[in-house]
Amino acid sequence: MANLEVQNLAKSYDGKTKVLKDISFAVNNGELVSILGPSGCGKTTTLRIIAGLIPETAGQVLVNGKDITKVPVYKRNFGMVFQSYALFPHMNVFDNVAFGLKMRKLDKSAIKKRVTEMLATTGLSQLSKQFPAQLSGGQQQRVSLARALVTNPELLLMDEPLSNLDAKLRLKMREEIRDLQQKLKMTVLFVTHDQQECFAISDKVLIMKQGRIDQFDTPQNIFHHPRTEYVARFIGYDNFITVTAANRQDEHHIKVGETVLNTVEPNQDAKVLTIRPENIHLNLADASENSFTGTIMSREYLGQSFKYAIHSAIGDFQVEEARQKMRSSGEEVTLTLPAKHLHPLSE
Amino acid sequence: MLDRKNKTLTVISIIILALIMLPLILVVITSFNTQSSISLPITGFTLSWYSNIFQQPDFISGFESSLIVALIASISALVIGIPAVYALTRYNIHHAAWFQSFFLSPTLIPEIVIGFALYQAAVITMRIPVFIGLIVGHFLLCLPYVIRLITASMLLMDSHIEEAGWICGCSRKKGFFLIVLPNIKASIIAAFMMCFINSFNNIPVSLFMSGPSLTMLPPSILNYLQNNYDPTVSAISVLLMIFTALMMFLVEKAIGIKNITE
Questions:
Q1: Which residue from A196, A324, B57, B176 has the least number of CB within 10 angstroms?
Q2: What does the pLDDT look like over B158-180, one tens digit per residue?
Q3: A103 vs B170: CB contact, 8 Å cut-off?
Q4: How far is B162 from chain A (nearest CA, A)?
């Protein structure tokens, strides 16, 4: 496996609208990096350019430091798993997996040995004579994975590989993919629109917005320190308090309405303050700092917790509270926004 | 309610089937008639009209040339049509819709006009041999079938399948033969069938493109009919039906086998 570097990648299909603008990032050897974003953000385009399926408008793709931007797709030695699996319908499982090795002109016995090995790794040994149409979604997914890995690719590209599976199977497959990736020390670039999925399996996550990278970091860092409002919204921060320079009192204090909010992170250039719904406390015994009152407007039952929509003088808040006893609408509560969980965002 | 609907449907189907089949059955019956005119009821049973077919040199040579022309025209329509469809469906070609209609346009022009135009332009003015003109004419008849059928199956085929092939190390050219063609095989065979049957049975174009040494089977039959109104025509019609049905059967079997494995 290898490391991948993408430099200043740009793409425009019609010469006018830029689908990708200046994308640069690196994936280290043995890392699983996810590209996360809503549909139309350019994540699949990025993946397809790296694969060599579509030409770039500008920029370079480097593998192990070597520029492969002009190398045709079939000479790149990558593996790819498609959302639709894209198995060859006219070949059985064995031939599907063997295809890449045949293209590399390996001799028959070597192909047989390698394919048998790969089928065993992916748990497909029993199915080698079956045709794709006879397999379940999960099995097709495995064949697709086996076909992508059998050639020992330098890089494995996965384009929303789990989105055609049902919820339960999706969880299982993502664990299997992660295990396999760790075992084979693969370099993987994984495209998804599912935040949970990508946080669960990735070493690093790249969040894209309208053809740009908004944040590229470890899942932990993104979760606890979203860089922009867009990222914060995408990963479940529901509460946003708009602030301006006039609100600033000092490095760590911002006055919103009559309430002074204290933040642990410095608040220079802060345009928005954000906090996750589960980090807001209601009716804390020791409600002194960052506290104010509000009225519960509505309630939603989430199973493990209740989610309340609360109206206050500084705005509306979504609060998630894990508690047996539910609160009713109209109830007056004190909200506490712990300073360490209140993040100032500059974008 | 459903029962009554089904009954109505069955009755309509039977009527339509009868309307199609009855003339054919009559042709089969009259082909065995001992009387020397095409008439019913038949007065006796004979196979002499069948043996008479092989005494007509026009029928023998007509069958040969019809077969050759149909094969050449169908195959060349496939050889030219499939890459054209591939390009139209897989690449971002400017005015792709216009090209599509252009390739389909022969269906809009009456066949007799195609025949006359080719005769006028190619044979009379440009002095191109009749045989070549014939092939061109039949090729034009075949092309729309290829374009229609192959376009449909090319659009149905997931384009990622081909891309997966490239990723596996297969060049575009190789991928076309190893991945695209096998997956549209059924419609290639279907297109070939349509082309062959249409070319083989064509009269309007073949009528113009004939010469002293070159007559196609359908015009020969027409010609024979004008001079002799005897059951030989019925007999040859029966043989042609059997020939076509046999081809259909063989092709159906070939596609059928493939469908089971898919």
A1: A324
A2: 889 999 999 999 998 999 999 99
A3: yes
A4: 8
